[in-house]
Amino acid sequence: MSKSFGLAAIRLGFALSSPELNQILSNTKAPYNISAPTALIAMQALSEGSITAMKEKVQKVIKGRTFLLDAFSKMTQDFGPYIGGLDANFIMVPVLNRQTGKPDNERAQKVYQAMAETQGVVVRFRGKELGCTGCLRVTVGTEEENEVLLERLATVFEQIQ
After folding, report:
1. What would the pLDDT profile of 143-153 be if each residue is shown by its tens digit?
2. Which residues make beta-bridge pairs with 92?
């Protein structure tokens, strides 16, 4: 419920499983149940109107992600192909060294810092994660936020060769 409904704060998840796995999960869960406010919020989130709103949000994220992926694919001096799947509200993309064309942690770290310190846009440096050399984690925003992100990335990439 945290991503598609925007309800990370209620700290509620669920699992669909076989009876055998369900028993194992039940044996390992914390010894308390869901609070009444959490249950109420979850029930409201599962109403027909909320489900419709959630589906609309998901479609906007998919559209924004497609827009960013298209833009990133044209920035071949600066970004390599995205890494991982496309089932989230973010994109993992490697920053390339312009001379070697290979993912570059040092340049990615500089882009990350410049975006936060001089451009007011937060991306996440993930270059130290296994299989993510040179990667930035870019959250898909609104149409306007995505446009600002691309403008400011272009500015930073001009400064950080």
Report:
1. 999 999 999 99
2. 83, 137
- Report the predicted TM-score, pTM, of the whole model to 2 decimal places: 0.80
d(CA 139, CA 98): 24
* Average pLDDT of the segment spanning 55-73: 94
Q: Which residues contact 71 (CB under 8 A, 6 or more apart)?
A: 150
Residues 6+ apart with CB under 8 A from 17: 25
**77-84 contacts, C-beta under 8 A, 24 or more apart:** 77/157, 78/153, 78/157, 80/134, 83/131, 83/132, 83/135
Single out the residue of 102, 89, 99 nearest to residue 133, CA to CA: 102
Q: Rounded CA gap, 140 and 67, in Å? A: 9
